[in-house]
Amino acid sequence: MKLHKKIGVFLMAICMSAVANAQEKKVSSPAETASGKINDATITINYGSPSVKGRAIWGDLVPYGKVWRAGANDATTFETDKEITVEGKKLPAGKYAFFVIPEKESATIVFNKEWKQWGAYKVNDREEALRVKVTPKKSASLTEKLVYKVNKDNVTLSWENWDIPVKIK
């Protein structure tokens, strides 16, 4: 076999190996969707789902008193096709960025009109649709990957040792 053919075969093997490795690499915070109905409204939540990976989450990785994107990567989005009541306050039908401001014994939920954004860097009062306070609950067991559930009368964010229910009618 001539030298240039050997080099060609070698380069092709390297390229194929790189493609195979890229396909095997898992996304650390994969995109997830939670969807369901509460009364007549269809609720859809799109979020990046990070893992605990042995870390302390609440008050550490996610600091108390700071706006958090309620997931990973892009801001979490919350969409409803009908007007709903969130913790007793009206939220019009639409698509919103969904943020959490955790505290030691409470959490503030923020629905922001500017839903297409990365992280939580564009949060401002002018674009705020609704802000409500909720009480997190200690979960029965560790929730390794962040997950949202649309239940019959609430949406619950669960991660590490907290469940954060948000009442919806």
Low-confidence stretches: none
Q: How many H/I helical runs?
A: 1
- How confident is the prediction overall: mean pLDDT? 87
Order of helices and strands: HEEEEEEEEEE
User: Order of strands across the widest beta sheet?
Assistant: 1-2-3-6-7-8
Please identify the oligomeric state: single chain
Report the C-alpha radius of gyration, rounded. 21 Å
Q: Strand content of the residues, in percent?
A: over 45%
Helix share, percent? 10-25%
Which term fits the overall shape?
Answer: globular
Number of domains: 1
What characterizes the major β-sheet? 6 strands, antiparallel
Structural class: mainly beta
What attributes does this structure have?
169 residues, mainly beta, 6-stranded antiparallel β-sheet, two-stranded antiparallel ribbon, 1 helix, 10 strands, 13% helix, DUF2911 domain-containing protein, DUF2911, signal
Verbal overview:
The chain is mostly beta strands and 169 residues long. The protein has one domain. It is built from one helix and ten strands. Strands 1-2-3-6-7-8 form a six-stranded antiparallel β-sheet, with no helix packed on it. A two-stranded antiparallel ribbon has the order 4-5. β9 and β10 form a beta hairpin. It starts with a helix and ends with a strand. The model has no long low-confidence stretch (mean pLDDT 87). InterPro entries: DUF2911.
